[in-house]
## 1
Amino acid sequence: MKAEIIAVGTELLMGQIVNTNAQFLSQQCTAIGVGVYYQTVVGDNESRLRQALETARQRADVIICTGGLGPTQDDLTKDVLAAFLNRSLIVHQPSMDYMTEFFRGRGIAMVESNAKQALMLKGSDPLPNDTGLAVGVALTQDDTHYILLPGPPKEMKPMFERYGTGWLLGLMGGEQPLYSKMLKFAGIGESLLEHKLIDLIDKQTDPTIAPYAKEGEVTLRLTTRAGSLSEADAKMADTEREIRERLGEYLYADRDVPIEQVIVDRLIELGLSLSAAESCTGGMLSDMITSVPGSSEAYHGGLITYTNRLKHALLGIPMELLEGDGAPGAISERTAREMAERLLERTGTDFALSVTGVAGPSPSEGKPVGLVYIGFARRGGETVAIETKQTGNRELIKLKASKAALYLLWKQLHKHDEAAERS
Amino acid sequence: MKAEIIAVGTELLMGQIVNTNAQFLSQQCTAIGVGVYYQTVVGDNESRLRQALETARQRADVIICTGGLGPTQDDLTKDVLAAFLNRSLIVHQPSMDYMTEFFRGRGIAMVESNAKQALMLKGSDPLPNDTGLAVGVALTQDDTHYILLPGPPKEMKPMFERYGTGWLLGLMGGEQPLYSKMLKFAGIGESLLEHKLIDLIDKQTDPTIAPYAKEGEVTLRLTTRAGSLSEADAKMADTEREIRERLGEYLYADRDVPIEQVIVDRLIELGLSLSAAESCTGGMLSDMITSVPGSSEAYHGGLITYTNRLKHALLGIPMELLEGDGAPGAISERTAREMAERLLERTGTDFALSVTGVAGPSPSEGKPVGLVYIGFARRGGETVAIETKQTGNRELIKLKASKAALYLLWKQLHKHDEAAERS
């Protein structure tokens, strides 16, 4: 099946936002064996959107539109497709009921324009919106398949992953589906990882091996066509074993989860608690951990001590350690160690992480941008502190430093598991 | 003039990279008054690229292609356009001389395939490549203008900025460029904002008015054609005044900046300091604030008190307020107020923000997902606490609650400014 992705939105044509939706949908389609042949962007304009649909119909079997399902006047994707296919729009009652309840529960007046978010084309399959109000649409007419998705990535992505891909797979019938397995690595960069696997990557045929880096982590995707998941697993087993032998110490998961999720799950399993003291990451590390649903069972809280005064006032770090001639300074292994240990005392958790460094854009204490120390303290155990060097702009350094702290914790949890096995 | 941007590259269709080139070219075209009506992505495939050119010729005056000018077999944009326009390819001698010298200077053998990077269509204008080897091409045939640019952003961007825009401006003669102005709002949703401006939006002609929502904020874009920035400002003044009259209380900036940036700048200007105590936002609020470069001048740090025990141990909130029959509980206006006031004592900052609520996915203390209380305390001033209801999934609730806290602070800073003016 040949697919075309149409992103609808004048803000894309003005260059105000970058079309990450097309990238996401292309990745998802490729993964299930639907080839994307064109991506198109068109503005919030009735006649041009209609023309884009006409062009796409001539060259694609599947047309995936994203954007223009919202409540405002320039949201017109459903109207245009309905006219294009000569179908009427009908109310999707569950969406309407949910929306009515939604506004009532919040004590907000539901303005009439909102109602159009509950419309779908007559005879189409609704795609539920678990993270917003506009219902999605999937339908087939004259051998062409159409999918309409919302524009905001937070609504579009879960809708397509949970409902859109399944709908497409249902159409494909006989063709053997693609199976992918994700191996997730932390504590190693993309180029070093690729370097260590270059012979495997060069001779790859089946399964295929594709590394990519995203958000401070590296992912390796193995892909093969097979009749079933267990058949696919068997085809990928040798390659996976070889990769584990070479890079096992960095491999934290064999599914597409961020490291914070693996850590939170493991802490809950072990009944252990965690706190964090952050300087240069400024809250990002705690934000990552608390993005995991249920994290409150393991993560108790922490401190953000951005200034030396607060490192002293809130954590009790002696000022003579932070400032003055010959002092190690706030950005030092010693301070990272003290932060973790003193936080542990104050919070009473089993584990404590600490991060202190230079996020930039300017050096601090005469120390270079990207220098970051990470500390780890455990109740009744030894404290560990390491020096790391992170690259990129301020946001990337914060991100990579947060991930590095999580990787240090993951390794300690791993040791914990090994010790438990031995005893 | 109507433009279409065609990005050529199979890696875009596989979702391996995001199409930032289209965004850049759209911004550049918009800035010089060339409206982009379509963006297209097509793979490294002769017949489909030809078809994309055919489609574009029917609907655009200017066709800008990026990608496919390199030395490898996949690079076929020049060949395809030459065949499409029935022109031959000729050597651009200065590019060939530069390339020959380039390889000789590095002691590398120049493989024959490299030579094609010095080719241009007969009768076209060369666009010099100051940061790479492939020469660009600009030409007009049958009233359609074509520009071919390399794919790597570090070559494409300088080529288009230095030579491509000038070539296009030369074609336009009289037409005036577009000017845009962004108005940024917080504390109001997209539909309510549009509802309050619907009569203006309905009768819009010049300037045009377009609202869009992103990351918990709403942006309104005013756009007009004018001979200069000051002329554009004058044309937009009446509309802007009307919008300010209706929505001034939510309008925090007239340029495209996030609210945290406006707040950090203002705090630094006033020499005031800030700390934050977070529960349900779990560090996201502090992370947002510290994402602003230079924020350490105003933001001193804070606490993340995820559990009641830490609300008591780190902030000193009495346990009888948090738990037990008849207690207001952790998720209450009273606790938000206490968190802000007690944080202020502990950090000694001028202002303190607090957030406590239910991010979900499950209710807490029998209170519904999305219920969030925000507190604000100031040295020597009155404490404020408000109740808000946020919608969406866990991540969105954290995001919107963080933005709501920033909006409360922004309003307080505003009052501060007004009080200063009066005194």
## 2
Amino acid sequence: MSNSSYHVLSELEIIEYVRKIPGLFSENAQLICKEIGDGNLNLVFRIIENGSSGKSVIIKQALPYARVVGESWPLTLDRARIESEALMIQNSICPGLVPKVYHYDKELALTVMEDLSSHIIMRKGLISRNRYPYFAKHIGTFLARTLFLTSDLALDHQDKKQKVVQFINPELCKITEDLVFTDPYYDAKTNQFNPLIKEVIEEIWGHGELKLEITKLKEKFLTHAQALIHGDLHTGSIMVTETDTKVFDPEFSFYGPMGFDIGAVIANLLLNFCSHEGHTLDQEERLQYQDYLLNTVEEIWIVFEEEFRILWKGKASEPYASIQGYEDDYILRLLQDSLGYAGCKMMRRVIGLAHVSDLESINDPKLRAKGERLALAIGQQLVLKRETAQKIGDLTSLVRYVKNQEVDQD
Amino acid sequence: MSNSSYHVLSELEIIEYVRKIPGLFSENAQLICKEIGDGNLNLVFRIIENGSSGKSVIIKQALPYARVVGESWPLTLDRARIESEALMIQNSICPGLVPKVYHYDKELALTVMEDLSSHIIMRKGLISRNRYPYFAKHIGTFLARTLFLTSDLALDHQDKKQKVVQFINPELCKITEDLVFTDPYYDAKTNQFNPLIKEVIEEIWGHGELKLEITKLKEKFLTHAQALIHGDLHTGSIMVTETDTKVFDPEFSFYGPMGFDIGAVIANLLLNFCSHEGHTLDQEERLQYQDYLLNTVEEIWIVFEEEFRILWKGKASEPYASIQGYEDDYILRLLQDSLGYAGCKMMRRVIGLAHVSDLESINDPKLRAKGERLALAIGQQLVLKRETAQKIGDLTSLVRYVKNQEVDQD
């Protein structure tokens, strides 16, 4: 570790630290600090001013190892820099859609940022079948703006190359390369799955065509420096209220394929879609919520495409942006990539390390298996059929068709 | 300029400089220095020991500006670092196929390397219709080894990402982006062409489908960090004897699409092919030499593919390399990319800045136009039909077909 002054701060030290940052709290403020993190890679503290001001901030400090396996799995602190720098870029591109950064400390790998205590993690909201009428508009805009405006379409190509260097992120990319693209497709030690679906998973391990398509998607993840992507845009990286959306935790940011971010959002909505098959629910309530989710997927893409096309017209600096047919071709390839990456991200959450609570919260393994089987079936078809998709309706039709085959025919 | 001690060395200073490098010349050697460069971006000196030893070396010093337009076009000295570091990697991967590097001086942006005085620039050899029976074997091997062994197929993915950073090369990439992919396809000031072919060029400027395909190839050049490519692999960057081949000048190196290097070699053989239409030649001699060139193109690809497949079997570290069908799919995409980039590189040498002496050495503009028209016709078809190619014979058949249409029917 080259950061000689780095050490993990205690709650008391955090309070002293935050007090010294100008403009945050008054000098004599009574501050209360609480570790609220549930991640494995970072400490997250909330500091609240006692009294009527109600002021609060979040401090996130990166750990030099992954907590889940103790100190034996070292992990670069540079990810704190990447996260804070990505947040600052996203803030300037999409003000209001990410937490504000008040302070970044390189030595301590620590970021002080806006507290979102009135928001909840979107995944929890979806498990409770909440509806977020502004979410599609917000996330579609976030995707269009962050992806377009950091790409060669909008940036001077030389600036973009410097940003590729700034956001090179080998260690965190490796986590994705292993856990999303590699381990789930063979009998890897890291895999964890419901024994009841072992047969289906073994079919996947033996499915040559599927594995070839996964390989191509992995290759694109490794080589396609298209835009500064969030890199981990699941519904656990999004906080919501009924009217507000905040995207956070961009420590996996790097220059990668745009479809990886779009696919991540879609995959996590579809995982939630599948999970309701296993929750004890009134049939009609289930169908209505599943419809809501598919409508949201469609709306996200529609907002994304609309916003992306507006940027293409107004903000493209690449002289070829105006070449007849290029915009349509580009957006079609994005749609197809998004299907592919959504498929990968669905399957890894069922077969590999790190599942999602949407499905894990189903206690009965048999009921859970129902949702998991559906997720695997949809995931496979998204990967295999991605190049046949011409519009977002093709994705939702495919999901309905697979669900019909897998579940409704039972 | 941040390199405060940088200054352009005189021939006398060069002699003093080289004398201090241990192991090159004896202490009292009489050294003769001569500037032999004909490039626009660098000074190239040959230092010869007077007497019977016959020892000699080359010193290449990068200029902080492009000489062609005076000091008004500044250019990063970092390209000297990139060149020397690329040469060292290529030397370790392909010993004997690139000049040895004896010394690199960051401050002076200067590299001391093996002299190749017994070799000639391959372009000159081809203009003289020399044959190089080992060239296809050498360059096919060079391409396969440098491209495979610097890619994610062979390298640890984290090491590869560090190499992407090491070889980020914004300024020299910009030259390619402008001069190869952009300026030739509209009425840009930098363009220079034979007025006799203006009509054909205006057709290209108005050819929507062609420009869309060029745009896709440019996008791939901007975003596809596939391997450490040479970046400027024309026949002026290759020195040959009848039995030896040396690739030099990798100052445009960066992580880009493999097909760009393969296409560059093919394009320059095909430009030479076209030029013989304009040289006064016995018909049979012309046809025989053109056959030799097309056979060489085929042989290069065959050697490349064979060597690439051997490396795939023996040197792949990517666990997915063994996925059924991936190798064939990968190589087919390389072939199609190579056709596309070959097409771009042929057209830019006729329409844009910096022509090739193969064609420029034809004094009669009418005769030269004949070769230039053929080059543009072949270039266009290579770009437009690239995705129909399944084997290298499809490329050479296409060339023969276009030549038949363009020239033989006159």
